[in-house]
Amino acid sequence: MKIAILDDYQDAVRTLDAFARLAGHEVLVFNDTCRDPQALAERLVGVEGLVLIRERTRIDEALLSRLPDLKVISQTGGGAAHIDRQACERHGVQVVTGTGLPHAAAELTWALVLATARHLPQEVENLKAGRWQRTLGAALHGRTLGIFGLGRIGSLVARYGQAFGMSVLVWGREGSQERARDAGLDVADSQRDLFERADVLCLHLRLNDDTRGIVGAEDLAAMSPDGMLINTSRAELIGPGVLEAALRQGRPGRAGVDVFEREPLLEHPMLALPNLVATPHLGYVEKDTYERYFADAFDNLLAAMQ
Question: Is the pTM above the cut of 0.85?
């Protein structure tokens, strides 16, 4: 079987133990993102099985119409918002998805909280340049951690906050509110109340039609000038251009983000803002998670083909 793996930026898949599952098959691995459907289709001539790494490439009618040999798409993790499932059905392409692990994303979230609160990227660069203690950070103990969406990742982050001596305030759908009450956590009166009261606010929502743009300019304007917004979920949860404008206006005072509307992002005016700590979508990018994701994806692909 001819199999293609897209968007392996670090050329890491071939180094995984899970890659041995594809022994005996012709495997193409691409290390960049090709956005032009015609050019991408030319790469994938004759491909029967396609393995996608998270949500890096859009699969739609324009692409599928050029891939008559494609039979199965196997998605690492469970998110498939970038796949037009109706178009796949029309073209007889089966879509299979795996499961995710919450720990790596939760850990990266907390790394961004600490880095943003204590200006760690700036101070690392200051020290390398011979500058000593140029910023004044903020402690987390005694402050309020806001969690927007108490799912698997949000629940872990809430526990990290408690370990640091923070009080935890939750908002989200009824399921999030019920889980918060069951865990003895405070529930905000409303979305606006969450943004007004949180010193550190972490977004942990799935992206769908209901949550796209759910955070607006008025929400961020309600945050304190000393407040911090952390987003390791999806950039599109915030309205287009809203976060950049809010940071320029100083509410919230700082932000740590791991996700962007267009990825990979190599240039953007927001990246130059001094009150932004940004990472290139690293939440799930670590070996244990990759082994789990790709083992599932390869097993699902081979099972579907059989």
Answer: yes
